[in-house]
Write the structure tokens for this entry.
Amino acid sequence: MSTYTTGEIAKLCGVTVRTVQYYDTRGILVPSSLTEGGRRLYSEDDLSRMKIICFLRDLDLPINTIGELLAEEHPENVIDLLLEQQTTQLRREIDQRQEKLDRLTELQKELRSVERFTVESIGDIAVRMESKNKMKKLYAVLLAVGIPLNLLEVAVIVLWIVRGIWWPFLAWLVLDVVVSVLLIGYFRRRTAYICPECHTVFKPRGMEVVFAKHTCSTRKLTCSECGYHGFCVETYGGDNNE
């Protein structure tokens, strides 16, 4: 079985020789044997124990607590729990850093798409980035209702053509009008628009949003703050009734 001197075990564990000696004096890492000249020699088990001590110290556990923990009959149970907690914490930190990286990447992409860069542009981009997930959920709701409604339309039209039964189409037409009105209201309450001129986030007046020309992310509207009339960027506006 391999043995290690104080210097070797310190190097393997990334600590100083003084630290190893200190753990010996505290009785939590006693060397397995001594040479004739009195030099400490550590075994493979001692090395494993030292790695555990270093890990527990990284968790900011006091020396006294580590000594008591290692003196337990089954310290591996507590250590396993600590390892699990540390793993969960590290995964949470990784997820948070990944989220920040994604936001930075998205910000870079948005900045490259801005023709005339201003300080206000960053504010507009930040608002859009924060609302992007909410807008995705909003569109998902609209699709979840709209697609079945369209499929139902096809079904009642086929039934009318093939069987000559027309009243289901009439019933669908009434349903379509009611659902469309509800969806329009749902959409209007939860969307707002960023004016490219004064950078105000505003909600359109009346039914302007319904009849306005639009792209997948903009609508041609009149800003309620500065009166600008043109394409404004769509963003999530919440719901005043929620």
User: Anything to note?
Assistant: The first strand starts at residue 33 and ends at 34. The mean pLDDT is 83. Strands lie at 33-34, 40-41, 191-194, 201-202, 218-222, 229-236. The chain has eight helices and six strands.
